[in-house]
Amino acid sequence: MDLSGASTRSIAIVGSRVPGMEAGLIRIEGRLDLQRSRPEGSSASPFHRRVTALSLINTHVSGAVNLNGAEITAPEEWAVSAGGLVAEGGVYCVDGFVAHGEVRLWGRSYPADCTCGAHA
Known about the structure:
Elements: E1 7-8, E2 11-12, E3 17-19, E4 21-22, E5 27-28, E6 32-33, E7 38-40, E8 52-55, E9 60-61, E10 65-66, E11 71-81, E12 86-87, E13 91-93, E14 98-104, E15 115-116
Parallel strand pairs: 1-5, 2-6, 3-7, 4-8, 5-9, 6-10, 8-11, 9-12, 10-13, 11-14, 13-15
């Protein structure tokens, strides 16, 4: 699923199985909700040429990023790549959140009260 460069109010893909999600350089004026969803890495991201299940490179979200209960899968690759992510409402990944693969959140910006309990 390629959403690169998109601009929208909110994205909600809840409780769904989805192929890899390329969401680099998008601007969301609300929230990104992937609660209980299952993104799976399938092809290399054009941003870093690695298989990535969820790519949020240089993405700006004015609301929250909700990954609660999500299972993100890219074994031996990058489950989540979110360098430069700005999430003004926070990033939440608890309540059963599981990442099969590496979670990369370098250079990100979100409030200090965010909640992540990732399991690799």
